[in-house]
Amino acid sequence: MRPSLVLSGVIPANLLPFTPYLEIDEKNYRKHLRYLVNTEGVNGITINGHAAEVATLNFEEQQYCLNVAIDEVSGKVPVIFGVYSDGTQNAIRLAKMAEKENANCLLVFPSTVYDYGSYLRPEMAYNHIAKIAEATSLPIIVFVYPITSGLHIRTENLVRIGAEIDNVIAIKEWSNDITVYERNYRELKKLDKNISVLTSFSKALLPSLCIGADGILSGHGSLIADLQVALFNAVKNNDLIEGRNLAKKIYPLAQAFYKEPFLDMHNRMKEANVMLGRFDSAYVRPPLQPVTSREREEIRSVLVSTGLLLA
To answer: What's the CATH number for 9-240?
Structure first.
């Protein structure tokens, strides 16, 4: 049976604060979740994603993060659980746990096993998602990686997944190619079921929103959810002038947080949240490393220049 959940609007992927001992900082985690949920126009929260350093979280910690989120969010918006696992069996275990602990939806990451030629074996991605869907009744978001990655799911396979697997209700579109984005959007919208296309073009939201998007699912929302809401609403209301003005404001922030090395994007967002008084500290788990003092000043400068932080 097809799930009834329909996803739309801004759905931030939360950051995960840590203590100096690199344990989960529940006090600041709850504070962060409250801030996001109380931002008008936020219609969901994605936990255990890249922004939450999910690669460093064990099974018990992922369950703990879910339990805290369910308690703190308290039914105000759907809580989406990231299923991050290379093996299908372990992904199923995570999905079953998420359903048992009252998650509302799953975000299924691609397995890194895809990286070695899965485009020649499209049944790999199809069956990975299908097996998870067989094991749970939860709705599923399929995570579409960049076309330059071996983890990318091509349009034909994506359409088949959306059409044939009832649980699939949305995609997180991070192809990073606007022509592929448009193809995915238009082909999925031809189906006889609703598939929400959630853009993750964090460095170029406006073009993807202008093509069409049901929402935004991005780690950058952990910092600028209010700006993403305003941009999404401007495009939805056909106010291109306001949309361009908001995109102009977001641009220097995206350039600062998503510059090379790309892997430091969420470290930088943690530092920004500290400067804005939303976090007490910006600890990250290895192998990630803290940003330099010089980059910290660059982050402060862009927050001031965009009006997010008083000089």
So the answer is: 3.20.20.70
